Predict the structure.
Amino acid sequence: MIERIWHGWTTPEAADEYERLLHDEIFPSFADEGIEGYRGFRVLRRANRNDEEVEFVTVMRFDSLDAVKEFAGEDHEQAHVPPEAESVLSRYDDRARHYEVRVRGEK
């Protein structure tokens, strides 16, 4: 299992809209692409200390690095940011990071 981790930031005013886009439009569209080995996503959210911006961490799960490449292309670390997301993000990582899941502690 591979987890693709990426960070983006919004203003507090745009945070709810970005979260809605992720949940209602962006991630469902990824699932609709029918990528073999795509296993879903998680979204983490937190406000910074001064409440000046909101950080989002997206975690996508894939069976293998080949599945990640099917999703993201040969340069699989390149961020995949749809235009509707760019319109509400104030900044974001240009590259995603990929980690092999070694231990799972779920009940």
User: Anything to note?
Assistant: The chain is about 30% helix and 30% strand. The longest helix spans residues 12-32.
